[in-house]
Predict the structure.
Amino acid sequence: MRPLWTGAITFGLVNIPVRLHSAVKAKERVSFRLLHKTDLSPIKYQRVCEKEGDAVDWKEIVKGYEYTKGKFVVVTDDDFKAASIESSKTIEIMDFVNANEIDARYFETPYYVVPAKGGEKAYALLREAIKRTGMVGIGKITMRTNSLHLAGVKTVGDAIVLEIMRFADEVVDVADFSFPTADAVRPQELQMAEQLVQNLSQPFDAAKYIDEHRANLMKIIRAKLKGKKIEVSEPDEPETTQVVDLMARLQESLEMGKKAASARAPRNGTTRAKRPARRKTA
């Protein structure tokens, strides 16, 4: 697999030659083209000047920053060059931070960090140090021209994973919203809610969660390709909003959870193997 980036990770005076590979697969999108309804011919787009109403050629287009409504300052290629940062093939770990101190909202896109030839021992050294200390290395990486990213270096099993992170000004402050306090919850309700959570707890298995909307859409598309007529059922009328007895709903949910748990339990035909009886010693 061709790497997306090659370079080195450094921490202190240790230099590790590495390659980056995507740790996630791009989801196969169901893409559509806009067509003219009468003859199903694809629709083209034109760049039209709002003031003149005429199509504009690419050579007459410049980039502008809207500093106030309807007011722009033109930014030229020379301006972009002046603002550019020096591209680097090194990820310098500036700090190590306790993993528990980093909000999950900061993490964005993961990449596997694979050691290049000669970097295996230093790679294993960094990985084990991160594992044992529970830390995340924080650094910066330029993956494309003028594309500077904050990055976190962590471990997943035997792999080092570099995860592109958001800068602080990209995360919406939770203080911008108002949330209910715990005082609104009665102890009995909290106890039942905790019991419900425990009843519904399962080991995480990502494979059990699927995109039903995409599956349904592809099923419809394949049927239409075969000339089948699609029957569309009318959606159910939404229920009238009513005041809900929270305790009653919790109790009902607990009963449903118990039934689901009993359905997952081993059937009567399967029993645990009995341990052999210990021999008595004189």
Observations:
- The longest helix spans residues 246-264.
- The CA atoms of residues 103 and 158 lie 24 Å apart.
- The helical segments are 77-83, 120-133, 187-199, 212-225, 246-264.
- The domain at 5-25+84-166 is CATH 2.40.290.10 (Ku70; Chain: A; Domain 2).
